[in-house]
Design brief:
single chain; elongated; mainly alpha; Helix Hairpins
Length: 101
Amino acid sequence: MAKVSAVEKNNRRRKLVKQYAGKRAELKATVMDRSKPIEERFRATMKLAELPRNSAKVRVRNRCEVSGRPRAYYRKLKMSRIALRELGSLGRIPGVVKSSW
């Protein structure tokens, strides 16, 4: 089980990403638009830099929803390999059977 503080920090980051997603996308579109004047693009870059760092999507870490483990994460199932194996053995994931012989 991961530290509760690490999981909570990641949840706060997810919340900030959702909160600032529209504003961030708008500013990035302005920065990337070559047809706009350089001064306007520079102002957009400065406003983008003023936003909280944790509002950037790349700062969010994929974590297992069962255990909070950050590594060996399956995106489709939103869980780690260890949790997948454990729940698969118990028969709690539809369509997954752990083979043993």
